[in-house]
Amino acid sequence: MEAAPAGTVAGQGITQDELRLAARNHALPLEALRHPITPPGLHYLLIHYDIPDVDPATFRLEIGGAVERPVSLSLDDLRGRERIAEPITFECAGNGRALLEPRPLSQPWLTEAVGTAEWAGAALQPLLDEAGPSASAVEVVFTALDRGVEGDVPQWYERSLPIADAAGGLLAYEMNGGPLPPQHGFPLRLVVPGWYGMTNVKWLTRITVVEEPFTGFQNAVGYRMYSPDGVPGEPVTRMAPRSLMAPPGVPEFFTRERRLEPGPVTLTGRAWSGHGPIELVEVSTDDGASFAPAQLDEPLGPHAWRGWRFAWDAPAGEHVLSSRATDAAGNTQPLDVPWNLKGYSNNAVERIPVRVANEADLS
Questions:
Q1: How far apart (Å, rounded) are the C-alpha atoms in residues 299 and 304?
Q2: What are the tens digits of pLDDT across the range 185-228?
Q3: Can you give the residue ranges of every domain in the chain?
Q4: Is the peptide bond before 102 cis (omega within 30 degrees of 0)?
Q5: CB-based contacts of 129: which residues, under 8 Å, 6+ apart?
Q6: What are phi and psi of 307, to 5 degrees?
Q7: What's the CATH fold of domain 242-361?
Q8: Beta-bridge partner residues of 162
Q9: What is the C-alpha end-to-end distance of the chain, expressed in Å?
Q10: Domain 8-235 class?
């Protein structure tokens, strides 16, 4: 057997380092897909470093760099701006990583690193306009208050966006109608609809307009697609289309295999994409051998997941259920995806084993 690439494990269990990450972060329980708006405690969570202790009374957001008029704002200043609220779906770029073989070493997500909250705050574009970016400005850098070490380099968490992409950003100070919880970026975070979660910088404290592309770790090294031999490729940006099913029936405790009685059942789930609205969801009850269209719910919003439902007359036996999404740009979930070194953007179609039998036979 060939050795696994550096930074991966093949045929082994979860490492202690991964277990520490998994204990700090958490996924969305798939049964919570029944909620159109995810309760904050069920929304997926990834914390890169530590949760900082921030005093909202002294907090300032600084906007500077290549601008004509630097801006400094308190939390009250931001709350005094026009309040914009919108349901927006977040998904971690590493969602699906633990399903790859060999498994890339990092937070061991299966498929549940997702959630949809109603984020509220002030639009970013008017503040950038007031600051007046220079004619040579190309990107906007967002700096957080959480600090750690990656690649042996101490750093604040920072990411950049091209100016055109930053224009749609929201400076959010509320989640589902209340203040941001500490783990979700209190008192202020960036929200960029359609982009993977790493873009939505938490504990935001500084916005810097720059005239050269940003070369910080999270952009240049961290969130890029890598070939099996470690060559960096395209940056990770927008969410690929994905559909997830709320698992039917009840679970076997340890394996989570679903147990279901024969007969009619309505399968439900949610689908999303960062490349446009969801236009089609298809469901398979035979391990992907065939698919049939599901009924779509009314859209929750332009940047939020879309509900779907599918009628299934469940016959006795062993089945594997799947769903797949297609967005308005024509992107459809694949049955399999090419392997990449960091396990990003694995939007392969889900596989949910289900055992259908009468209750007396389920034990």
A1: 8
A2: 999 999 999 999 999 999 999 999 999 999 999 999 999 999 88
A3: 8-235, 242-361
A4: yes
A5: none
A6: -75, 155
A7: Immunoglobulin-like (2.60.40)
A8: 139
A9: 39
A10: alpha beta
